[in-house]
Amino acid sequence: MLTVERNRPMASSISPIKDNSIYTVRNFNLWYGADHALNDICMDIPTNKVTAIIGPSGCGKSTYIKALNRMVELVPSVKMTGSIDYNGQNIFNPKFKVEELRTSVGMVFQKPNPFPKSIYENVVYGPKIHGIKKKQILDEVVEKSLKGAALWDEVKDRLHENAFGLSGGQQQRLCIARCLAIEPDVILMDEPTSALDPISTLKVEELVQSLKKEYSIVIVTHNMQQAARISDNTAFFLNGEVIEYNKTDQIFSNPTDKRTEDYITGRFG
Amino acid sequence: MVAREQFQLDLKDMKEEIIQLAKYTEAALVSAVDALYNQDMALAEQIIEKDKDIDKKELDINNKAILLIAKQQPVAKDLRRLIIALKITTDLERMGDHAKNIANATIELGEHHLLTVHPAVRDMRDIAIEMVKVAVNAIRYEDISVAGKLSGMDDSMDNLYETIIREMLEETATNPEKVQYVMQMAFSARYIERFADHITNIGENILFLVKGESYNLN
């Protein structure tokens, strides 16, 4: 059972296992202008686990994972307080280099967004930016990343064809391969299967399961069955607060908070 | 609008059907013990016939529960509601079988058997009927305090059963020619005792529904 602590009354300050956390989030608040989008979040994200974020639309889950790689600060009028430590370093510290964070933390979005280039060029895009030029090394990166994304067998004979020729599910796995090519520690996924057909969805889900051996994964999903199937821990967000954060088995069998129960059983949302 | 309104209505209907089935089994036991005391062969035959309705009702509820699981993909308490629906209806069907077994014993004993039915068999029946009522309330209100009462009632049932069996065995010692009748009577007491065990299973299921953990009331 994950430990739950409350730093102060009414705070959604929930913390899981203390050790082996890649992220430590403490009293994190975020405002879009006057809108208090995230309210006093305290939440550790364990290493080499799949952490699912669930909650109704507008509850702050996408904002939260965009805060984890500082993408959220691209939005005008954002204000933040509290801390998000990545491997023990506060990512909002002025000395912290956002480029290093983006190298360590990959992101996969709702809609597959391959570049208008070949499959090969999509995968090597990141490594090339990081200065890798040797063809032999790039070839190895492509094969390793595409194998990691369970796409290699399907595309190995047409690596130099345009990525737009792939199916939606293949494009999404290509985006995951592109993410793997920079060898991140964390993969953030924002509803990665919501635009995919059921078979492609299952392939991505199986992929997530296999990837957690090497990566820490945070996945935002509207599909509660998906969260139940693939995640180790689940956080339920509501109105910008973490209502309950616990082992996924516990959340989906016997949640402690009535609001969690009402949401997962479809009483609202 | 309440989300998943139809699903909530389906769950409510299912609960009512389970309660109805519980009342059928209660009526079956009352009739079965009446038939036993009154040597009423016609009533015994009716009970055996009506047991088919209980069996059919069990299958209906099970099919509905399976369909709801498939269509609604419930989780947490909703999932437990459907899982226990499957288990409770199985218990209720077995309770119906025990009433039928008493009816069969009545027929086996015949109209002019040499044995007076032990008066405490009625007491066993009364406890069992009271237990059904408690279980129905536990199901209706999902009330664990009510469900918890079944354990003590089952203990009373077990004590009564042991007393009856002991006294019946003593009777066979003094009247060995009655042994085949005593056997049928002892079986009947045993069927009521087993009937009650199934009711405690129902109580355990209600505890599981509310708490999400397994309990043993037997």
From TrEMBL, chain A:
GO molecular function terms attached to this record: ATP binding; ATP hydrolysis activity; phosphate transmembrane transporter activity
Cross-referenced PROSITE patterns: ABC_TRANSPORTER_1 (PS00211), ABC_TRANSPORTER_2 (PS50893)
Protein's membrane topology: Peripheral membrane protein
Highest taxon listed in the record's lineage: Bacteria
Principal cellular location given in the protein's record: membrane
NCBIfam families reported in the protein's UniProt record: 3a0107s01c2 (TIGR00972)
Function of the protein: Part of the ABC transporter complex PstSACB involved in phosphate import. Responsible for energy coupling to the transport system.
Name of the protein in question: Phosphate import ATP-binding protein PstB
Protein species of origin: Virgibacillus oceani
From TrEMBL, chain B:
Superkingdom of the organism of origin: Bacteria
Alphabetized Pfam families for the sequence: PhoU
An example Gene Ontology biological process: intracellular phosphate ion homeostasis
Subcellular location: Cytoplasm
Start and end residues of each PhoU domain: 18-105, 121-206
Family: Belongs to the PhoU family.
Predominant subcellular localization, coarse grouping: cytoplasm
Upper classification of the organism: Bacteria, Bacillati, Bacillota, Bacilli, Bacillales
Organism: Virgibacillus oceani
Function: Plays a role in the regulation of phosphate uptake.
GO CC, one annotated term: cytoplasm
InterPro entries per record: PhoU, PhoU-like_sf, PhoU_dom
Identification of the protein by name: Phosphate-specific transport system accessory protein PhoU
Residue stretches in coiled coil: none
UniProt KW keywords: Cytoplasm, Phosphate transport, Transport
Transmembrane parts of this sequence: none
Subunit structure: Homodimer.
